[in-house]
Amino acid sequence: MESDLREHREREGLSQGDLAAAVDVTRQTINAVERGRYDPSLELALKLAAHFDCAVEDLFRLETPP
């Protein structure tokens, strides 16, 4: 899954720790999602979208095969 989470976070001037605290996860979870090493649960994806006041699709999209 590809993510624009980092772009949204940086646009708002948030650190990974700030965002993690806002959505009740660890900084390591945010880091893993941003690096594509962890696909967020539906609950986390919805929390992140609500935090940024956007659709889940604005933050995440499925990778298309080559």
Automatic annotation (TrEMBL):
Pfam families: HTH_3. Gene3D superfamilies: lambda repressor-like DNA-binding domains. The keyword DNA-binding applies. It comes from the Archaea. InterPro entries: Cro/C1-type_HTH (IPR001387), Lambda_DNA-bd_dom_sf (IPR010982). Keywords: DNA-binding. PANTHER family: DNA-BIDING PHAGE PROTEIN (PTHR46558:SF4), TRACRIPTIONAL REGULATORY PROTEIN-RELATED-RELATED (PTHR46558). This is Transcriptional regulator. GO terms for molecular function: DNA binding. The keyword Metal-binding does not apply.
